[in-house]
Amino acid sequence: MRATVVVPVLKSRSRGGQTESASTRTPESRLEEATGLAQAIDLDVVNGQVVPVNDPRPATLLGTGKIEEIKALLDERDSGLVIVDHPLTPVQQRNLEKEWNAKVIDRTGLILEIFGRRASTKEGTLQVDLAHLNYQKGRLVRSWTHLERQRGGGGFMGGPGETQIEADRRLLQDRIIKLERELEQVVRTRQLHRAKRRKVPHPIVALVGYTNAGKSTLFNRITGAGVLAEDMLFATLDPTLRRMKLPHGRTVILSDTVGFISDLPTHLVAAFRATLEEVLEADLILHVRDMSDDDNQAQSSDVMRILGDLGIDEAEAEKRLIEVWNKIDRLEPEVHDAMVQKSAGASNVVAVSAVSGEGVDTLMDEISRRLSGVMTVATIRLPVDKLALLPWLYDHAIVDGREDNEDGTITLDLRLSETEAAELERRIGNGQKSSKEDWER
Fold first, then answer.
1. How would you write the chain as a 3-class SS string?
2. pLDDT at residue number 244
3. pLDDT of residue 51
4. Looking at residue 435, what is its pLDDT?
């Protein structure tokens, strides 16, 4: 379908004596992003334009002159769909469709359409359906305004339009309740999976970032997985988890989550909370940023705002977050070198290229360092009846030396975190303090 993208830029407004901008994004970056969103669902974007809006109209958002100008363009380019990169009320959407004689969708409707295309798991499909129904619920009444003017006879106050509205509203609400129940079951299943992972306590590392920042490409680079990674917005939607080994042998679980985006509607965040809870459970969060994008600072602010909405405040983020400056391969040599040098001097930043692999080894070392915490050096002798602990040790500790003794026991020189040292002591001693000859430090 041939589509036209319209980006309304609302004039900055004064609040409490201070000027407040309607958006932190540049108009050009908003137009580029909206066009990318449209192309992500195979729309043919034949025109895109930024429209300054000094005085938003309650009925149409845009002024009469601009509406007529856009209508002429639609007719000239045979465009049957208009994407307005701004929230529209049901009244505004209906009026614009009448004026332009074309289908009109706003930013929320477009994102929902993309999510519907990308969802592949049962959980993802349920979340998209629920968000879509909640979005439609507020717009249902306007679908039947042509019937509201009809009035029944015989003393009846209502008419067939009101009956139809109520029937549709009831069907919609029943479907929402059914989806919420199904989603609750999925959430319980996910919680059970988390509980199982806690019994085998591999640390969880979650990738977050603005959509198209390169999370899936980095995920594939680190784990060797075949997750879809394309240069498009929301190429992947459903979360993916993989085990991986760090350079010193420790096993962790890497989680690739849905990409964030600015102005993500509240009910969409709520619908995807079950998915985003993987981030809350993570021991370490990798915030992947596309440093080749001129608007990356605003994108970073949007990501941090959503993390705050999920309950991860700045203080907690400081302890659990590593910024991954991705796509440095796209930078000019001088900018590339300056960014690598700047990241080397920061405590929580690593510059990488997920495509070429540059900096990935440094990132893996930083993950190991952050997850290790205070390391304990230990020498243990595993008795014959405890040799089943060997796989656990190689997964959770760094084995610096091993000696197989004649009596069948094995002596190991280990480095491991204090938490894992306590867990190992419990496993060796079956919950009791182990003997000195079995556990030496």
1. CEEEEEEEEECCEEECCEEECCCCCCHHHHHHHHHHHHHCCCCEEEEEEEEEECCCECCCECCHHHHHHHHHHHHHHCCCEEEECCCCCHHHHHHHHHHHCCEEEEHHHHHHHHHHHHCCCHHHHHHHHHHHHHHHHCCCHHHHHHHHCCCCCCCCCCCHHHHHHHHHHHHHHHHHHHHHHHHHHHHHHHHHHHHHHHHCCCCEEEEEEECCCCHHHHHHHHHCCCCCCCCCCCCCCCCEEEEEECCCCCEEEEEECCCECCCCCHHHHHHCHHHHHHHHHCCEEEEEEECCCCCHHHHHHHHHHHHHHHCCCHHHHHHHEEEEEECHHHCCHHHHHHHHHHHHCCCCEEECCCCCCCCHHHHHHHHHHHHHCCEEEEEEEECHHHHHHHHHHHHHCEEEEEEECCCCCEEEEEEEEHHHHHHHHHHHCCCCCCCCCCEEC
2. 84
3. 94
4. 39
State pLDDT tens for residues 298-344: 999 988 888 887 778 777 777 889 999 999 999 999 999 999 999 99
Q: 415 - beta bridge partners? A: 377, 398
Give the list of residues 6+ apart from residue 370 with CB closer than 8 angstroms, or none.
284, 322
Do residues 354 and 221 lie in contact, with contact meaning Cβ atoms separated by under 8 Å? yes
* Regions in the chain scoring below 50 on pLDDT: 14-21, 141-161, 431-441
Please classify residue 65 by burial: count the beta carbons closer than 10 Å to its beta carbon, then call 0-12 exposed, 13-18 middle and 19+ buried: exposed
- Verdict on whether the full-model pTM lies above 0.90: no
Under 8 Å between Cβ of 20 and 13? yes
CA dist., res. 251 & res. 164, Å (int): 58
CA distances, 346 to each of 324, 325, 366, 368 (Å):
12, 12, 12, 17
The token pair that represents 349 in the structure block: 């930043």
